[in-house]
Write a structure and sequence with these properties.
- By secondary structure, the protein is an alpha+beta fold.
- The protein has 6 helices and 15 strands.
- The chain has helices at 2-33, 36-48, 108-111, 163-171, 178-197, 338-352; strands at residues 71-78, 81-86, 91-98, 122-123, 130-132, 136-142, 149-155, 219-220, 241-244, 253-259, 268-273, 294-296, 299-306, 313-318, 355-359.
- Strands 8, 9, 10, 11, 12, 13, 14 and 15 form an 8-stranded antiparallel beta sheet that branches.
- The longest helix is centred in the N-terminal third of the chain and has 32 residues, at 2-33.
- The chain starts with a helix and ends in an 11-residue tail after the last strand.
C-alpha cells in the first residue's frame, strides 16, 4: 500500500513539473508574440531620443507614437536645441528653447527652420500660436515671467508628394490629410512636454480636433476674405486669381499671392512674419538696423512692434517684373497695384496682431514698376 502511494506521488510530481514547464513555455511564447520585448526596447530608446523631448506617449493632446516608430538622426544643435528624424517619411523634428536675446543668434535658422509645405500657411486653432502649410508645422509657446519661448517645428512629414498629394487633398473635405492633423497634434504635445522639461511655465491651448479648411486651388480675387481681403484689385484688370491665408491673430506666418496667369507667370507675393519667423532669411547684422521699411532689388519691406515679441514683425512684397511691361496686343498701361496693395496688406495684418509703430516704405513705386 505504501509502495503504491509512493508511485502515485512520483507520478503526480512529474505531471506537475510537466504542467509548469508548459505554463512557462506558453507564457514565454505569449510574451514574445505580444511584442513586449519590442515595446520595452522602443520605450527605453525613445525616452532619451532627441533629448527626450518628442511627445511619444499618449496624452490629452496627442494619441502617441506607434511602438516601433522609426527613430533616426538624433542631433544636438545646442544646449537647448535638438533635431531628429522619426516616422516613415521620416518627419524632421526641431525642438528649441529660444532664450531672451537669442534673436541675434546667427544659428537661428537651424533652431527655427523655414516653412516648406505646398499650401498657404493656416493658423493653428485652439489657442495655439503657430501655423501649418501642408508639409510643415510650427508651434511657439511663451514662458510666463520671461521672454523665453519654446519652438517646435515638424517638416517633411508627408509620405506622398506631388500629384498624389494633390489628388488626396482634393478628395478630402477640408484640404487636409490625416498626416497633417497627426503631426500638428504631435507638435503641440511636444511643445508642452519640452516646456515642462525646461521649466518653462507655458499655457497650453486646447487639444486639436481639426484644422481650419484650406484651399487647394487658386480662387477668384472676388472671393478674397482672408489675408488678400481688401486689396485694391480694381486698380489692375489683369488680376484674376489669388491664394490666401486664413486670418488669425496667433499665426506666425501669413501670405497672399495674386495671380495674372493670362499675362505673366510670376505672382505678386505679400508675406507677414511674426516672432522669430520675422528674422528668417535676414542677415543677423541687419536685425537692429534703423531701416525698418524700404525698397530693394526684389521688392519692399515694412515692420511693426508686436506685443510679446522681441522681434519686429516683418512684412514683404515681391512684384513680378513683367507686371510693368507685359500687356496683351492693343493694351498698354503701368504697374499700379503693388505698393497700394502692400500697404493695405501690412496695415490689416498689423492690426489683426495688435501691432503698433508700423513703418511703411515712403517710395511711391516698387522697384519692378520702373
Amino acid at each position: 500500500m505504501a509502495r503504491t502511494t509512493g508511485v502515485n506521488w512520483r507520478a503526480w510530481a512529474a505531471w506537475t513539473a510537466g504542467a509548469l514547464v508548459l505554463v512557462v513555455l506558453a507564457g514565454w511564447i505569449w510574451w514574445e508574440k505580444s511584442g513586449t520585448p519590442e515595446r520595452r526596447s522602443y520605450e527605453k530608446a525613445v525616452k532619451t531620443f532627441c533629448g527626450g523631448l518628442p511627445a511619444h506617449e499618449k496624452s490629452s493632446q496627442f494619441e502617441g507614437l506607434r511602438t516601433g516608430t522609426n527613430l533616426a538622426s538624433d542631433i544636438t544643435l545646442g544646449p537647448d536645441a535638438h533635431f531628429c528624424r522619426l516616422g516613415s517619411a521620416p518627419a524632421e523634428v526641431t525642438v528649441a528653447r529660444l532664450r531672451a536675446g537669442e534673436h541675434q543668434n546667427p544659428d537661428l535658422e537651424r533652431a527655427v527652420p523655414h516653412f516648406s509645405g505646398s499650401l498657404p500657411p493656416v493658423p493653428l486653432p485652439g489657442g495655439w500660436r503657430g501655423a501649418i502649410d501642408g508639409g510643415s508645422v510650427r508651434v511657439l509657446v511663451g514662458c510666463r515671467g520671461s521672454e523665453d519661448r519654446v519652438a517646435v517645428t515638424v517638416g517633411s512629414y508627408l509620405d506622398r508628394i506631388g500629384q498624389e498629394e494633390t489628388e488626396a487633398r482634393r478628395a478630402s473635405d477640408d484640404g487636409w490629410l490625416d498626416s497633417d492633423l497627426f503631426w500638428a497634434r504631435f507638435a503641440v504635445a511636444t511643445a508642452v512636454k519640452a516646456a515642462a522639461k525646461w521649466d518653462c511655465d507655458a499655457e497650453p491651448g486646447d487639444p486639436l480636433r481639426a484644422l481650419p479648411p484650406t484651399v487647394i486651388e487658386p480662387e477668384s480675387v472676388a472671393a478674397a476674405d482672408g489675408t488678400c481681403a481688401g486689396l485694391p484689385f480694381a486698380r489692375d484688370k489683369r488680376l484674376e486669381e489669388m491664394e490666401e491665408t486664413a486670418v488669425g491673430g496667433a499665426s506666425v506666418y501669413e501670405t497672399c499671392r495674386v495671380i495674372a496667369s493670362h499675362y505673366f507667370d510670376s505672382p505678386y507675393v505679400f508675406t507677414a512674419r511674426f516672432g522669430p519667423d520675422a528674422l528668417l532669411g535676414r542677415d543677423p547684422a541687419d536685425v537692429n538696423s534703423e531701416a525698418r521699411a524700404g525698397v530693394g532689388e526684389n521688392g519692399a519691406w515694412a515692420s511693426a512692434d508686436c506685443h510679446g515679441d522681441a522681434e519686429r514683425a516683418r512684412f514683404t512684397a515681391i512684384v513680378p517684373p513683367e507686371a510693368a511691361t507685359v500687356w496683351l496686343p492693343g493694351e498698354k498701361g503701368e504697374e499700379t497695384f503693388g505698393l497700394p496693395a502692400f500697404r493695405e496688406f501690412a496695415e490689416r495684418s498689423a492690426e489683426r496682431h495688435g501691432c503698433t509703430d508700423l513703418r511703411l516704405p515712403s517710395e511711391r513705386r516698387l522697384p519692378s514698376a520702373g
